[in-house]
Design brief:
With 217 residues, the protein is mostly helical. The protein has one domain: Four Helix Bundle (Hemerythrin (Met), subunit A), CATH 1.20.120. Helices cover 67% and strands 0% of the residues. It contains eight helices and no strands. Helix 5 packs antiparallel against helix 6 and helix 6 packs antiparallel against helix 7. The radius of gyration is 18 Å and the shape is elongated. The model has no long low-confidence stretch (mean pLDDT 95).
């Protein structure tokens, strides 16, 4: 029970600690808004997500084809949170207008809702790039996968952008932009792997023509 209660809170607690320590203060309403939304997502995933998918995400099986994105993203996301805290809390190097911050917060909530939808629809939603042969990996075409082939990545990218706006620092968007580029690269790698190795995926790719944004990419 203790693990069930604490695990969903780990990520928002870490993010909050980094931002607030960097800021030197906790009276930052937009930061609290971001943390509340992130906490709700983490709790929803812990309660409703497929158990096999959660085990895969926490301890992926063999065959990862992208060992670059995760470690890079961890470093750059920490830099993003530190910069955001320093900027909005201590030094005020830049300022995102409040209406844009509010748009960012709403967009962040919508983006994480789609991330959750993708995770609920896809029991093979791994934290690495691999074909999960031992789990009977099959092509998923329901839910948001009817519209683009990688809705989880699309929503995660949108969430990064909108969440960055909500935190209120233009400087903090710089490391975030590199993370977003790395995720686009990962999308391409994963899509190529699935077309080669996952039965039915090549046909699905012909039917759903876009990876991330309908009509664009």
């Amino acid at each position: 029970m203790f693990t069930f209660l604490t695990r969903p809170l780990a990520m928002p607690l870490i993010v909050g600690a980094i931002v607030f320590v960097a800021a030197g203060r906790i009276d930052l309403p937009m930061v609290w808004g971001v943390l509340v939304i992130l906490t709700l997502l983490c709790i929803a995933v812990a309660v409703f997500a497929d158990r096999g998918m959660m085990r895969e995400r926490q301890a992926p099986g063999p065959g990862n084809r992208d060992r670059f994105t995760r470690p890079l993203s961890v470093v750059l996301l920490v830099a993003h949170w530190v910069l955001a805290g320093l900027d909005v809390g201590r030094f005020h190097w830049s300022q995102i207008p409040v209406p844009l911050e509010i748009i960012g917060l709403v967009g962040y909530a919508l983006s994480l809702t789609i991330v959750f939808w993708a995770m609920r629809s896809n029991p093979y939603y791994s934290s690495v790039v691999r074909v999960q042969t031992e789990r009977g990996h099959s092509t998923v075409s329901s839910g948001p996968y009817r519209y683009v082939r990688h809705p989880g990545y699309a929503a995660s990218l949108a969430g990064m952008f909108f969440g960055g706006l909500a935190l209120g620092s233009w400087w903090a968007m710089i490391p975030l932009s590199v993370v977003m580029i790395a995720f686009i690269r990962r999308t391409i790698l994963e899509d190529r792997l699935l077309q080669r190795k996952l039965p039915g995926y090549a046909e699905y790719a012909r039917q759903v023509g876009y990876r991330l944004i309908v009509g664009v990419f």
